[in-house]
């Protein structure tokens, strides 16, 4: 375990090296956003799924515009990976952002106990919004929105498992941008008759600052290669050290915490047995040296973080 003396040696600010985030918003997202907005008038309630590890950051302002038009439930998903020790503070901040209805959930936990609470909440929200409530015999249409990779498809599949006893209707994947088809209408319940509109993950065209961009990338909403795996790994190391979360020391069997990403990635690469052979001229002939595969180590570090192996996370 690291002493607080060791913790004092760590960087207090991250050098983003003049990174630009503007190019992280691909064209297909703008198209998706436009289609979603056009479909809104047939929607009774919007379920916005967001990642509980970044409860405040990264929700797009354009989503929030839609919220004033339609009843809205914000579902903070992946709580199995999140450190929610400051839950009250998070709830308060979201209330200040006009989030009236909030729920915490995990879509992958066995028995879907969190997902079970969502439909009753939606029914309550609709019942308290008479202008949108139609009556028991009418179809209810819900739109599921959110940034990439937060679990929108997983939620829809969980609903289908639960209410229709059916398997996957929509593909799930660990990489962002799996859902490309816009607005597929999927029946998720017979009684009441409920349809869900699946939507592609859409990022804000204006990510407000580079730090938000890095947080989004750490939770997998932006593809790693757009940021650079080693750069992102460095940011992760910076964040873990700042929060004095030193589980990585034990996890990678290190001697002590470390603030130098290449040193750390080198250690992980050796642990994983990942090295590259490089031919070098030694002056008296050529020789083969083994260089740690830093990229493979960076990917492993990011994967371990995302799967919760380095402890529950809170990036806001
Ligand atoms: N640990 C954990 N993983 C989850 C949870 N919900 C979804 N996932 C995983 O997160 C990844 C993304 O899930 P999807 O349901 O495809 O996310 P999406 O929002 O539809 O993604 P896009 O299609 O990119 O917009 C998958 O690997 C899921 O298994 C959760 O509650 N906990």
UniProtKB/TrEMBL annotation:
Residues 142-243 form the G domain. CDD domains: YlqF. One of its GO terms (cellular component) is mitochondrial inner membrane. GO terms for molecular function: GTP binding; GTPase activity. It is found in: Mitochondrion inner membrane. InterPro entries: GTP-bd (IPR006073), GTP-bd_ortho_bundle_sf (IPR023179), GTPase_MTG1 (IPR016478), P-loop_NTPase (IPR027417). The keyword Membrane applies. Keywords: GTP-binding, Membrane, Mitochondrion, Mitochondrion inner membrane, Nucleotide-binding, Transit peptide. It is a peripheral membrane protein. Plays a role in the regulation of the mitochondrial ribosome assembly and of translational activity. Displays mitochondrial GTPase activity. Belongs to the TRAFAC class YlqF/YawG GTPase family. MTG1 subfamily. This is Mitochondrial GTPase 1. The lineage of its organism: Eukaryota, Metazoa, Chordata, Cephalochordata, Leptocardii.
């Amino acid at each position: 375990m690291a002493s607080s003396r060791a913790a004092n040696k760590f960087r207090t600010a991250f050098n983003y090296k003049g990174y630009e985030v503007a190019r992280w918003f691909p064209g297909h997202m703008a198209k998706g956003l436009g289609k979603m907005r056009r479909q809104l008038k047939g929607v009774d309630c919007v379920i916005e799924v967001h990642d509980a590890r970044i409860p405040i950051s990264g929700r797009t302002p354009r989503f929030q515009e839609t919220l004033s038009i339609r009843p809205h439930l914000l579902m903070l998903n992946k709580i199995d990976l999140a450190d929610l020790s400051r839950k009250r503070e998070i709830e308060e901040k979201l209330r200040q952002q006009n989030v009236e209805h909030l729920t915490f959930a995990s879509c992958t936990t066995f028995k879907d106990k969190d997902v079970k609470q969502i439909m009753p909440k939606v029914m309550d929200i609709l019942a308290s919004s008479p202008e949108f409530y139609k009556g028991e015999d009418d179809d209810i249409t819900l739109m599921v929105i959110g940034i990439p990779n937060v679990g929108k498809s997983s939620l829809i599949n969980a609903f289908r498992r639960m209410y229709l006893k059916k398997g996957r209707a929509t593909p799930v994947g660990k990489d962002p941008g799996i859902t490309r088809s816009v607005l597929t209408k999927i029946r998720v319940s017979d009684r009441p008759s409920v349809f869900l509109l699946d939507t592609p993950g859409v990022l804000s065209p204006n990510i407000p600052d580079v730090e938000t961009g890095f947080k989004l990338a750490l939770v997998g909403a932006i593809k790693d290669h757009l940021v650079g795996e080693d750069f992102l790994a460095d940011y992760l190391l910076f964040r873990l050290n700042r929060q004095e979360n030193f589980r990585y020391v034990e996890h990678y069997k290190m001697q002590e915490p470390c603030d130098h990403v290449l040193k750390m990635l080198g250690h992980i690469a050796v642990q994983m047995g990942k090295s590259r052979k490089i031919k070098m001229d030694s002056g008296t002939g050529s020789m083969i040296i083994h260089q740690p595969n830093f990229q493979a180590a960076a990917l492993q570090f990011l994967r371990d973080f995302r799967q919760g192996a380095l402890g529950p996370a809170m990036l806001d």
